[in-house]
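During the reporting period the student researcher (J.K.) took over the structure-prediction task from the postdoctoral fellow and processed the backlog of single-chain submissions. One of the processed entries is reproduced below for the supervisory committee.
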Amino acid sequence: MKIISKSVEETGEIAKGFIEKLSLGVSDKAVVVGLYGDLGSGKTTFTQAVAKLLNINECVTSPTFVIQKRYPINSPKSKVQSLKKEKPNISSDLLSTLSFPLSTFIHIDAYRLDSGKELLALDWNRDLNDSRNLIFIEWPERVADILPENHLKINFKFVGENEREIEI
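J.K. obtained the following structure tokens:
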């Protein structure tokens, strides 16, 4: 499905729809999402929107130089209570979707990596084998040799100054 986003707010709505449909807890592995697209195509903006939906209050920026950033996710109960206070317009369906047993949101930027071997040094296997992790990888093609075959793919394309095409 291809969607055109014309603003950061619309990208947030697309991220919300993605989270609503995300099936978690089904696997014994982390959910891995590859974010494909050129520089400036909206990958980090989408990631920031997802982090906000997961009630991560830290400033989320692309981890280009540190390669990986880890963000703890609040417990479902406190997360739901906080979302209800701060975002009364979030649907109850989304709140129940967000109640899955996630503990960590991991954001990886593989742009500076030459292969998956370099990601292994950051405890990739440990992170991949923890079903409580949600892992977003920018530039996943750089580490394709170690990505799970069934990882989710989101393609981003710069269309214009304020327009991005997002294909989930």
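The committee noted the following: The chain has one domain: 24-38+48-155.
J.K. will present the remaining backlog at the next meeting.
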